[in-house]
Amino acid sequence: MKFKPITVAGLLVAGILGFSSLARAQEGEPVVVDEVIAQVNDGIVTLSQLKREMHERIETMKEKGMTEQQAVAEVEKRKPELIAILINEQLLLQKGKELEMTQRVEDEVNKRMLQVAIENHINSMDKLCEAMKGSGLSCEDTRATMRVEIMKQAVMEGEVDSKIFYGFSPDELHKYFEAHKDKFVKPETVELSEIFLGLAGKSEADVKARAADLVKQARGGADFCTLAAAYSERAAPPGEKPCKVGEFAIPELRTDIAGAIKGVAARGVSEPLKTDEGYQILRVDTRTAGSNSPTFNENAVRIAMTGEQSPKAREAYLQDLRNEAYVKVAANYQDAVLPLLKIVPPPAATKRDQPDKKKGKILGIIPRP
Fold first, then answer.
1. What is the distance between the alpha carbons of residues 289 and 141, in angstroms, rounded to a whole number?
2. Which of 191, 239, 263, 315 has its Cβ near the most Cβ atoms within 10 Å?
3. Splitting the chain (369 residues) into consecutive groups of 10 residues, what average pLDDT does each group show?
């Protein structure tokens, strides 16, 4: 069975480094140490982890048009940055465990895997893993990667973003609104339904012809959601009808989708829209006109203010984690990596190159925590 590309890709967050190697170390499997690049409290970053991250970056750059030689050269220049990223990830994963987020993260992993099963019309996790294996994917590696990314986001959202969001006073909220009214003009919104026909393993001409026929049926009076239940290859969000996608502000839509539904009235159906994965047929369920008059909405203002302050606050939080941690970088990487970490020892700190006994030692085998 082949998985629709958007289904598997949707498990992960685009633009982030791969985490499978780091996840395995965090999951407690014994890890044979080839070369320790850094010790981070009782965790480590190894050369094999770094090489896997470099390989993934190289492949991503090649997909974007770089030659092998160009991609290798570019990633090689970023090696110190990648080591610093792996150190930061270790710290966030350790913090998540300290905050007892492990079960919450595992619940979210299960939820996302279930959604993948639903989207691929599979009725059990065992069958999902079998299907993934047949498509060249490892079920356990996928779950481990998801755990790492979800844990990182959970820590940042709980320890940084939520504190910013709820920290603004009413006076601050109103002052921001008055100074940024252009951000709070209500845009036009649409509710959309879709039928998705994938291209994987099929003739594009056949898929295109089927899409055109479904548009003809929908415009001729056939129930759109009934057609979606019979033909669509992408499941609706949990709890929604088979056809439903959701409500969106027009400025937030992808350019191609906005173009496809431009001029389509409520209850109208678009022409088939070609994407990398297949063909989409969109129905505009409702259209709600926008307004040129700014409207104060406390939640919207908090979101806007948090979005502005979050990046700097997240970096400050990471810096605090680094400052408070025991981080030992191998001698041949120190000159390039330590300046990126900007670690400032506490004023009363003793030697930082001597690990506390409670924080473990670098061993050939890292035991299960």
1. 45
2. 191
3. 38 35 47 79 94 92 92 95 96 96 95 86 89 88 92 96 97 97 92 93 93 96 93 72 86 93 95 93 95 92 97 97 96 95 74 46 31
Nearest partner of 259 among 291, 241, 286, 282, judged by Cα: 282
AA letter at 240: E
Cα–Cα distance between 14 and 56 in angstroms, integer? 13
Residue 248's contacts (CB-CB under 8 Å, 6 or more residues apart) are: 189, 190, 191, 192
The answer to whether 16 and 149 have CB atoms below 8 angstroms apart is: yes
The DSSP secondary-structure symbol of 369 reads -
Backbone torsions φ then ψ of 283, nearest 5 degrees:
-110, 130
Q: Which amino acid is at 23?
A: A
Give the torsion sign (CA, 205, 209, 215, 219).
Answer: positive
Q: Where are the alpha helices (DSSP H) in 120-203?
A: 125-134, 139-156, 162-165, 170-179
Q: What type of residue sits at position 365?
A: I
Query: What pLDDT, on the 0 to 100 scale, is given for residue 119?
Result: 75
**Residue 10 one-letter amino acid:** G
Q: What is the arrangement of strands in the sheet containing 273-274, beginning at the earlier edge strand?
A: 244-249, 189-198, 278-288, 273-274
Contact yes or no for 20/145 (Cβ under 8 A): yes
Cα distances from 281 to residues 91, 240, 324, in angstroms, run 44, 18, 53
Instruction: Specify which residues 197 forms β-bridges with.
Output: 279
Q: By the 8 A CB rule, do 194 and 282 touch?
A: yes
Among 283, 280, 360, which residue's Cα sits nearest to residue 4?
Answer: 280
Helix (H) or strand (E) holding 366: strand 365-366
